[in-house]
Amino acid sequence: MSGIVRKRDSLFIGGQWQQPTSAANISWVNPFTEEVFGSLPAASERDVDTAVAAAQSAFASWRDTPAAERAATLHRFAETLENRAEERAQLVSQENGMAIELARFAEGVAPVQLLRYYADLVASGAADQEVRQSQPFPGVTRITRKPVGVVAAIAPWNFPAILSMFKIAPALAAGCAVVLKPSPETSLDSYVLAEASVEAGLPAGLLSVVPGDAELGRYLVSHPGVAKVAFTGSTRAGREIGKQCGELIRPVTLELGGKSAAVVLDDADVDATVQGLAAASFINCGQTCYASTRILLPSGRYDEFSEAIASMAASLPVGDPMDPSTVIGPLASDKQRERVLSYIDLGRSGGARVLTGGGTPDSQDRGFFVEPTVFGDVTPDSEIAREEIFGPVVVLLAYDGEDDAIAIANDSAYGLGGTVWSADVAHADAIADRMDSGSVGINGFSLDWNSPFGGVKDSGVGRELGPEGLAAYQQTQSVFHN
Ligand code: NAD
């Protein structure tokens, strides 16, 4: 294949660069240039077998490595990865079109911060053991938290580096070994991760990378050597993985889709709110699981807010994702663009009004772009108000009174993110408490490494981040002292 910018010939398995056992290749195009960007070998089932076996043998000694030593190793890993942060951010931006300033933080810096956070958490020892007074009989019980074993970590293409690290950092900190299956479109950046792990002296086999498609993912999920599955991706795939794990009685964390509500309260300041919504609703071109893509407005201020939101969306800088001033780059693939455009058609034909956007931008002569799009006159039961579009498309819904706002916000199959916008933080907090969602932001949305993140309903099962994210890779043993 000619014109390939980045090419890899080997696979990182068991701490070594190995020749793939199949001739199958993965290649993909840069969504801005529409030219073939990268090519690498697809792992085969045999490669997965080798990776799992190496992980099992690494786990046998890593599980008994003292927490302080595990933490020191993770700190070295953080350092070697930090040296490659800019390179990794640029790779991701070229793989999936993410605006470079966002990639610098989310895909470059944040994975390093997560390694450090979990290293410090296990080094503190707080999570390892506790002794409780027994009930009803006298005595004490010692509770130990042990690593679950080999983890199959499966990541999507929208935030490949950080979502992989949501799993790798707590799993390694807990004493587990990881086999990572990145998304086929965004596997190249995980080569940087692998190289940094070697440079940091991570024991061989503790981390392997097996690029491949859904079929390879299925094989990994049900592999007899895997003890736990951690998945981020679509609700459709999550349902299938959940079924497989149910059959196998295998612990699983599922971080899935969303259609989160932004509840704008009557007292919200229009400028501050609309500026905040630019990030909360359009982050990564709307290809963000927790994005606030349903904006609920008080009917008395509907016109004022809808005008301001439409003009904010129209002013978002669209362009080359490698240009630091860009906010809206292309969507990650042609397929994703087609999917988003078909939802826009559905919105129009269902009677919703396009307030801005609604097509592909004239300013761009190449790239998988969709204009930031705002739909008004949307009814809560329409497809565009209920289904995850995963693009730069928001819908505006009017509500009458806060009970109505809560009813609309909670009338969703999903429950992952959400935001409340108000001048009165205590009041916004009370509204957040009534939302059926795993996480809610007040006057903005930002993840917190120290607090759990995850969904309810079709948005998933289990939590990542915080001490809860570590617990997801541990199982407890109770020793009763009679
Ligand atoms: P996807 O489900 O198609 O694929 C995700 C990953 O799973 C890929 O690596 C894919 O190869 C693999 N896969 C797919 N089917 C599988 C199966 N049956 N068994 C094992 N592996 C399988 O999702 P996507 O299109 O890559 O990502 C977009 C979706 O991810 C959106 O729905 C988005 O909301 C969701 N997402 C959720 C979160 C979260 O934290 N909740 C974060 C980011 C993205």
Could you explain the architecture of this structure?
The strands form five sheets. Strands 15-16-17-14-13-18-19 form a seven-stranded mixed sheet, with helices on both faces. The chain has a six-stranded mixed sheet with strand order 10-9-8-11-12-20, sandwiched between helices. The chain is built from 15 helices and 21 strands. β16, α12 (383-386) and β17 (393-399) form a beta-alpha-beta unit. The protein has helices at 45-62, 67-82, 85-96, 100-123, 160-174, 189-199, 214-221, 235-248, 270-282, 302-315, 334-349, 383-386, 402-410, 425-433, 466-471; strands spanning 6-7, 11-13, 16-18, 25-29, 36-41, 129-133, 140-147, 150-154, 177-181, 207-209, 228-232, 252-255, 260-264, 292-298, 353-356, 373-376, 393-399, 419-421, 441-442, 460-461, 474-481. The longest helix is centred in the first third of the chain and has 24 residues, at 100-123. It is α/β, with parallel strands linked by helices and 482 residues long. Bound molecules: nicotinamide-adenine-dinucleotide. Nicotinamide-adenine-dinucleotide binds at residues 154-159, 163, 181, 183, 213-214, 217-218, 221, 232-234, 237, 240-241, 255-258, 289, 388, 390, 416, 455, 460. This is Geranial dehydrogenase. Pfam families: Aldedh (PF00171). GO terms for molecular function: geranial dehydrogenase activity. The active site is at 255. Belongs to the aldehyde dehydrogenase family.
